[in-house]
């Protein structure tokens, strides 16, 4: 089986619809066909300041949401990044292989550090993509299921894997991004030209999966569309309507042309009312399942412990091979 690896930050509490449709949904289906490794990336989370108690709670909350979304610990390896020390160890080797200029070109760092102020951004935030490189290469992943915003980091991973292999001999699998066109980028409901994100979206434009279902329905009903009335998929001319159609189509499995057909002659109100209902049907059981996992922390922690053990056995092997290639004397 080909291998996949991906991660999600535990920082925002609730996952948002972009996280789910862009990434987590693919994780669930890939566990059926791939040897799948998924993690809650708490090392990445501390690249910006975190409250320790909140970070701990949000890490368990993220794991609970992944299970609620359909990850099955019998079918995939689910773990917490900091439980596998090899991530930080391989990241150091990768840091030493990356050019300063190369790292400086990462657009996510530019965006995020601009928001924080360059002097306040941490060196960790700067090297974040390189830790991500280590995350992926440790598992010899063939594919990385992510949203479009991560494409540049997967490119960097490919470059560094090739560079290391070229310099020290074949060591790492060169991974490919697994990005589905329809859900690569879910847009803000109030400004459908920007990505739905926890940092850039306004509260009304961001669907948090753990919000009250009624609040979610309200956000869908007040989504920005346009002054026209035609329900047609056209990213350029009708970004708001197109975003709603993508979300609707992915959550229900109905094709976009089928939906366009269904709403001929009906207004945006009908589309939004129906989509609000679809969203409520999706988030209601999701919230309940998440709560069930949170109510049983022992089971949750033991799933994560087993996942970490399995992840470590793979990660340790890759790290040992890397250290050997680099020229470190093996510890006796
Ligand atoms: N709007 C989106 N559309 C499609 N995919 C998305 N992802 C995030 N936003 C969208 C994908 O979700 C996965 C996890 O991303 P993350 O760990 O970076 O989660 P986040 O920090 O909650 O994402 P944000 O909201 O995008 O964070 P900020 O605001 O900090 O930039 C990834 O695969 C990502 O592509």
UniProtKB/TrEMBL annotation:
Pfam families: tRNA-synt_1b. SUPFAM superfamilies: Nucleotidylyl transferase. It is found in: Cytoplasm. A motif ('KMSKS' region) lies at residues 195-199. Keywords: Aminoacyl-tRNA synthetase, ATP-binding, Cytoplasm, Ligase, Nucleotide-binding, Protein biosynthesis. It comes from the Bacteria. Gene3D superfamilies: HUPs, Tyrosyl-Transfer RNA Synthetase. L-tryptophan binds at residue 135. Its main location: cytoplasm. ATP binds at residues 9-11, 18-19, 147-149, 186, 195-199. Its EC number is 6.1.1.2. CDD domains: TrpRS_core. InterPro entries: aa-tRNA-synth_I_CS (IPR001412), aa-tRNA-synth_Ic (IPR002305), Rossmann-like_a/b/a_fold (IPR014729), Trp-tRNA-ligase (IPR002306), Trp-tRNA-ligase_bac-type (IPR024109), Trp-tRNA_synthetase (IPR050203). Catalyzes the attachment of tryptophan to tRNA(Trp). HAMAP family: Trp_tRNA_synth_B. Homodimer. This is Tryptophan--tRNA ligase. It comes from Streptomyces cavernicola. The lineage of its organism: Bacteria, Bacillati, Actinomycetota, Actinomycetes, Kitasatosporales.
